[in-house]
Amino acid sequence: TVITRTITNTKKAEKVIDEQYLAADLDEITKLQEEDRKKPLKTVIVWRNVLIFLALHLGALLGVYQTIFEAKWATLAWMFFLHVFGGFGITAGAHRLWAHRSYKARLPMRIFLMLLNNIALQNDIIEWARDHRCHHKWTDTTADPHNTERGFFFAHMGWLMVKKHPMVREQGAKLDLSDLYADPVLQFQRKNYLPLVILSCFVSAFVAFYTAGLFRYCFTLHATWCINSAAHWFGFKPYDQAISPVENVWTTVTAVGEGGHNFHHTFPQDYRTSEYSWRLNWTRILIDAGAALGSVPIKETPRRERSSSTPTLVETSLLLLLSFSNTG
Ligand code: ST9
Ligand code: ZN
Ligand code: ZN
User: Fold this and answer.
1) Contact assessment for residue 130 and residue 173, using Cβ atoms and an 8 Å cutoff
2) Which of 41, 90, 169, 175 best tests ligand 1's pocket when mutated (most atoms within 8 Å of CB)?
3) How much is the ipTM here?
4) Whose CA is nearest to atom 11 of ligand 1?
5) Which ligand 1 atom lies nearest to the CA of residue 164?
6) What span, in angstroms and rounded, lies between the C-alpha atoms of 40 and 191?
7) How far is Cα 321 from Cα 169, in angstroms, rounded to an integer?
8) What's the pLDDT tens digit per position in 89-111?
9) Which of 23, 227, 235, 276 has the most CB within a 10 Å radius?
10) Which atom number of ligand 1 is nearest to the Cα of residue 83?
């Protein structure tokens, strides 16, 4: 029954346009694209960021060397943990919960995800979600912070080394972010971001600076950035041929379940973000575990008709086991 239910749910993914939470605004996109064609793009490099990223990558290279030739098993396990759980802070937290509101989470789950999010050091959640809402609403235009029209490198990491296009600010100002500002967990994170990040992202720096500190951080960054670059370039488009995002299984592996990007841009309100099986979607396992433990009241989410099939703890464990033996 459990498997049948899952398959039925998977087939049932419907395109529900949700104005607030990020369905692409096609009229606005066409208008912006026409304006973009008229004006040349101006790039203002922020040298401070260029230097920081350069230093980070040099340190990370040393970390790669140490990881291969010197690191203990315990360090490797710690790096893996930080990548996966820091990754969850982005995928389950900043992305699926706060940017998209694709599910609801009670206070303990929100605190847990916010704490994990600090490990990833990718700006505070309010800023992350604001940029991401721009990305979905005005994809591939100058109002998209990592506009793919400006090239692979710009979409990957170049956008973090230049001033934002004025259109990002102008259009972004129209977004309703009141839900983010109203969340006390996000207010707390914003107020205490520096100490939180130092404690969680670089606490391991004292014992494993280059490996668990710099290399792991750099790896998580590239795994995330690849969703904006590789997952808008290399792959196939089973859900919507007209958009740039693609399905890319490799980026799914490194981004703990986020590479089904053609699905995600087509159905941004779906908390799974892809139809890949459970073993390729660890983030979904975490959210479903939260639901089974009562921290994610999926039943209260109005957009989700499949609420009746929210798995129990036993079902979740069973599916977790199955996911390792079944490609789905
Ligand atoms: C990082 C983020 O890496 C990565 C995000 C990737 C997203 C991926 C999504 C893919 C899907 C999910 C998959 C997840 C997979 C995860 C896998 C994990 C294993 N709307 O920014 P400022 C206004 S961070 C509205 O300074 P500049 C606003 O008033 C890495 N308004 O612009 C703002 O003031 P405030 C570490 C906006 O001066 C003001 O403008 N961090 C918007 O042009 C100034 O904003 C860094 O590297 C908007 N969207 O500077 C930091 N944006 O904020 C990099 C701005 O006070 N950032 N405004 O309201 C910077 O240094 C700067 O932002 C800058 C631009 C130089 C890039
Ligand atoms: Zn998204
Ligand atoms: Zn995208």
Assistant:
1) no
2) 169
3) 0.98
4) 227
5) 43
6) 38
7) 46
8) 999 999 999 999 999 999 999 99
9) 227
10) 19
